[in-house]
Specification:
mainly alpha; 77 residues; 45% helix
Length: 77
Protein backbone atom coordinates (compact mmCIF):
# COMPACT_ATOMS: atom_id res chain seq x y z
CA UNK A 1 0.00 0.00 0.00
CA UNK A 2 1.51 3.25 -1.11
CA UNK A 3 1.01 6.38 0.97
CA UNK A 4 1.57 8.63 -2.08
CA UNK A 5 -1.28 8.74 -4.57
CA UNK A 6 -1.28 10.01 -8.13
CA UNK A 7 -3.99 12.65 -8.61
CA UNK A 8 -5.14 14.10 -11.92
CA UNK A 9 -6.02 17.78 -11.89
CA UNK A 10 -8.54 19.61 -14.08
CA UNK A 11 -5.90 20.97 -16.42
CA UNK A 12 -4.81 17.42 -17.31
CA UNK A 13 -1.58 17.36 -15.34
CA UNK A 14 -1.00 14.66 -12.80
CA UNK A 15 1.15 15.21 -9.76
CA UNK A 16 1.91 13.14 -6.71
CA UNK A 17 0.27 14.45 -3.58
CA UNK A 18 2.13 13.46 -0.39
CA UNK A 19 -0.44 14.82 2.01
CA UNK A 20 -3.46 12.60 1.27
CA UNK A 21 -4.17 9.39 3.13
CA UNK A 22 -5.62 6.42 1.35
CA UNK A 23 -9.24 5.64 2.19
CA UNK A 24 -8.37 2.49 4.14
CA UNK A 25 -5.52 4.06 6.16
CA UNK A 26 -7.50 4.20 9.41
CA UNK A 27 -8.79 0.65 8.92
CA UNK A 28 -5.26 -0.80 8.80
CA UNK A 29 -4.28 0.76 12.12
CA UNK A 30 -3.12 4.24 11.25
CA UNK A 31 -4.40 5.72 14.50
CA UNK A 32 -2.48 3.71 17.12
CA UNK A 33 -0.41 6.78 17.99
CA UNK A 34 -3.62 8.68 18.72
CA UNK A 35 -4.66 6.07 21.29
CA UNK A 36 -1.20 6.14 22.85
CA UNK A 37 -1.35 9.95 23.01
CA UNK A 38 -4.81 9.80 24.64
CA UNK A 39 -3.51 7.41 27.31
CA UNK A 40 -0.58 9.71 28.07
CA UNK A 41 -2.77 12.82 28.29
CA UNK A 42 -5.27 11.04 30.54
CA UNK A 43 -2.56 9.88 32.92
CA UNK A 44 -0.99 13.36 33.03
CA UNK A 45 -4.35 15.00 33.80
CA UNK A 46 -5.17 12.49 36.55
CA UNK A 47 -1.65 12.87 38.00
CA UNK A 48 -2.05 16.65 38.14
CA UNK A 49 -5.45 16.26 39.82
CA UNK A 50 -4.03 13.90 42.44
CA UNK A 51 -1.10 16.27 43.04
CA UNK A 52 -3.46 19.22 43.64
CA UNK A 53 -5.56 17.10 46.04
CA UNK A 54 -2.44 15.99 47.94
CA UNK A 55 -1.24 19.57 48.31
CA UNK A 56 -4.70 20.62 49.53
CA UNK A 57 -4.73 17.75 52.04
CA UNK A 58 -1.29 18.74 53.34
CA UNK A 59 -2.32 22.38 53.76
CA UNK A 60 -5.56 21.38 55.48
CA UNK A 61 -3.66 19.08 57.85
CA UNK A 62 -1.13 21.79 58.63
CA UNK A 63 -3.85 24.33 59.48
CA UNK A 64 -5.79 21.72 61.47
CA UNK A 65 -2.88 20.92 63.78
CA UNK A 66 -1.00 24.25 63.78
CA UNK A 67 -3.02 26.02 66.54
CA UNK A 68 -1.96 23.75 69.41
CA UNK A 69 -1.71 26.27 72.30
CA UNK A 70 -5.25 27.67 72.15
CA UNK A 71 -7.04 24.30 72.25
CA UNK A 72 -8.19 22.34 75.34
CA UNK A 73 -6.64 19.10 74.24
CA UNK A 74 -4.60 17.16 76.76
CA UNK A 75 -1.67 15.31 75.23
CA UNK A 76 -1.58 11.54 75.77
CA UNK A 77 1.42 10.32 77.77
Amino acid sequence: MSMVEQKTYEDGTSKKCEYLWPTNYIAVGGVENKYLFNKWITSIIFSALILVCDIGLAIFGFFLFSGGSDSNHVPVK
